[in-house]
Write a structure and sequence with these properties.
α2 packs across α4 and α5 runs antiparallel to α6. The strands form five sheets. A four-stranded antiparallel β-sheet has the order 3-8-9-10, with no helix packed on it. A four-stranded antiparallel β-sheet has the order 13-14-12-15, with helices on one face. A three-stranded antiparallel β-sheet has the order 7-4-11. β9 and β10 form a beta hairpin. The chain is an alpha+beta fold.
Length: 274
Amino acid sequence: MGFDNPDESKVWNQWAMFQFTDEGRINGIRGNVDVNEMDITFFKSIDSGVVLTDDANPPASYHKGDSGLGVKELQQKLMKIGYELPKYKDDGNYGDETFSAVKAFQKKNGLGVDGIAGESTLGKVDGLIEDLEKSRAEDLPKVTSLGDRYAVQVKAKKDIGVYKYANISKNFRAIKNGTVFSVYGYTYATWAVPGGFLQMKDVEPLPVKLVTGGLNKEMETNFRSFLKTEGINAELNLYAQGNPTAEITAAGLNLVKVKQLLMKNNWWYETSNS
């Protein structure tokens, strides 16, 4: 249940933040957005240096001397499309460095060169950001999902990086040498892990022994033909005593292919711990 005013609640006697309106407007976003109001005491306890603004709706343009979240967002976008802010970066202050970057952007894109980030400048910046993100998405290699059923275990051969994108860009965390973990997808050169990607060459797939049961001669022939066709260098060991069984050890994508064959043909199998 909602309240028109914070003090109408019988549960809470002090508020840190509440929804001010659901009809706010933000440059670069179509339609209404939520705008929240924060208690000044709570704000000061978490203040990161961004200047408070009185107006819930951001200005239509930014000038030299302005500051706040809107300026910070503009700075981040300028850096993303190649305009360096080496000294102050995205500090939220529209100083000389940001002013010069905006002028350079305006000149390059045929806009009026006044250093003011107005509607035309902000719209052009947003358009280039959209084009950049679209281009990056189109350039990403196709990822084939393995899911939990065909997940593969690997071991890091050294301290390795985990990247945000499948084209190995934006290294954001590391996995230590010797760590064993599961991968859930792949491209032509990367493994997919929760939240990112890593290079196949940096890890060693761990071998797994599979045991099948009930294989007749025709099934054996099909199995060996499959291994040869797929170029899987794995030895198929058959045991004819009692219910005919077979053992095969494989790793990485070869293991995935063997499991997929067994599932496709509805051949029973289990993982051997021996």
